[in-house]
Amino acid sequence: MNRLYYTAVVILLFFIQNSLAQTDPLLLGVTSNGGENNTGTIYSLTANGTDFKIRHSFDAVGPYGILGGVTHASDGMLYGVSNSGGNSFYGTIYKVALDGTGFEVVHHFDDLNGARPYAAPIEGSDGKLYGTTTVGGNNTVGVIYSIDTNGSNFSILHHFSSTEGEFPFGVLLEASDGSLYGMTNGGGSFEYGTLFKINKDGTGFVSLHSFDNYTEGRNPYGGLIEDTTGALYGTLWAGGPELGGSVFKIQKDGTGLELLKTFPFSVDDGSLPFCTLLEGANGKLYGNTNSGGGNFIGVIFSLDKNGDNYSVLHEFAQLQGRNPFIGNQLIETTDGKLIGTTRLGGTYDKGVIYEINIDGTGFNKIHEFNDQGANPHAGVLAINGKLIGSNSRGGSSDGGVLFSVSENGTGYETLHDFSKTNSNGFVPSATPILVNDEWTYGSTREGGNYGFGTVYRLLTDGSSLETIFHFDEISGANPNTDLLLASNGLLFGTALNGGEFNNGTIFQINPGDNTFQLIHTFSIVGELGAKPRAGLIEGSDGKIYGVAQSGGNDGFGTIFRFDQNGSNLEVVHHFSNANNTGRTPSFKLIENINGQLYGVTIFGGSSSNEEDGTIFKINKDGTNYTVLKNFSTDENGTPAGPLNDNNDGYLYGVTENGGNNLVGTIYRISLSDDSYETIHQFDVINGVSPRGSLLTNNSDGWIYGVANRGGNSDDGIVYRIRPDGSSFEKTIDFNGLTDSGSRPEGGLTWLPALSFAAEFSPLEGIAVSPNPTNGPILFSWNNNFPIDKNATLKISDENGKTIYAADGNIPEFNLLVNQNNILNKSGIYFINLIVADQYFTEKIIVKK
By the 8 A CB rule, do 267 and 277 touch? Predict the structure, then answer.
């Protein structure tokens, strides 16, 4: 007989109890925000939405991520921004003394009031700080803000829109007329960025100029500078007459744009200037490019303000530093030297600080960055003989550091370590799973001892959380999918990043002793794939199946499988961009009752000339790959979660956008004729951007899910829907507060409210057949089996819902189960027996 055993603690404690009293199971899920520290929660609630409870709030975490330089204000303090972290994970404004003391976060961005700041704020002539965020705000494309240096009086001066300009990266300029000037990376008349002006009180905003990719250049990343005549100067990253970007001059009213320099793609010149320019004491303009030069990794250049006398002062080489990036602008010292940074290059390829004479001679590395602090995204300040700046990587948890070093390169010091670590991780995005009656297991994609996420276990009553593994980048980083409890009793999972090549890993956890084992590291170009964003499943053949969203023969992802001992990892299918078959699988597969694998891709396919993903099926041996549906964002959206088999002849799923209201849908597709039907249109109040897995409840007929945004507070919802779409209910509105959480992720799972009084051991000598079955089953036993002893029988569906329970002996169960026609519907069921202190369990497949 084909018997699939689960371990004792896995199945027995999940489905059986000593008495027949059965309390209603709970739904268990996670939010990636909200809770006591706004770092995510684990929550439970009943099926109808009552008895909502926060079972765990994850620990607080400070700022980290891309650190966009610092400003030395008149109060003597340094002010800067972090691109991530803070109370809402959308970044912060911080201040710190020159010696590293007195670090304080003065503002936490929250998306609605701006998110992901890149450039440091400037100090205005009125003593306030002024800056921009790259995204967030009313239109999600960035804001201009002001704030007092003590963190009070934060104010949004302007919410950008696509017509005015969007995604400002560069630092603001307070010009001689007292107004603020800056540039956006996109938007405007040509969608390639704009130059704007605004008064410091928020009045008078105007888009002065929209950049034309073909005649001028496009997508400025840097800021503006002003000369003594009042003219403004800046760079455009790419485009223009020679395609490699440009240096321009423009008047403050937006007229008279002149191209002073256009860059080609050539080893004889630079190309792709990301920088904010520097006007030297000699009146010349200085800057750098990300590409071009003899090694094609960037140059330092100079030119006159009328565009004459352009000169390449230096061509970068790998060991000298390479590819100056956004914010790696130059400064000039009092002795006439230029000092700058590169994000990459040097001995460790983590960036350098360099100096060069203003005539291009005397290039010298002042400092090479390493794991103490790495990858500066901004230049440095020269203060009292020291260079002060920030690194976006490195430090104790790779969260970046604020540093100082003398101008001669000695005395490197970490002023502040931006930590991503905490005791148990944060930002859970994977639904916890029940491993036994005592513990649920899950993962966080950030935090832990090394900042790369954790695996944790939580008591089912929510009273205690234990971190059982801290990812350290070599073992994997940023796990964000559900763990799989396989039939051998082991947990399997994937990490999106990390491993030797930072392309993700497959790992195993033994719940018995909580030991961790690395099964596979995905390589850079390996045919097995890369970046496994999705969870794993166990097939009916006992093998573990998964998908990688990139890599493989064509670079667009793979389906892979391996044995439960971690061996025989092989590719079942290589995704391709050819023939409209779909690419970039990002959600776990399912196996239908017919033994085929079904899944979705988020790109590829062809529908109304769109490439927004597909639904596909494939045999487990890789044959007969078939596209069942092509998605279109405008029509029905992009897949945002795996498929769910409701055992009613349909597969169900969600899209995160599309539909009548462009905020997501719930759909189903027929297994008999591949017909596709949208059964629900989300509408903001009733949810936006549904995410993750749907969960079927065979007992009450509802399908359950979560939406990441929307609802009364725009913090997400839990909902349920009838399979035909005839009825939809919002059962919980998240509000982002400490007693609620926000941004539900992953999906939901059942948490049966069971308790046990004894330890159990496996029951030998019993069997159930046939398997698969068309309904009837028969218990059989060997001659030594105590068939006259009293036993408890429970039959549960695949979601843990008890559909039948009885007391009796084994022969009586043969009569009871079949006479009552218990297994009358196709699906997966679990047969559970307990006799005295011993148990038996088997997974049964019913095909009607």
Answer: no
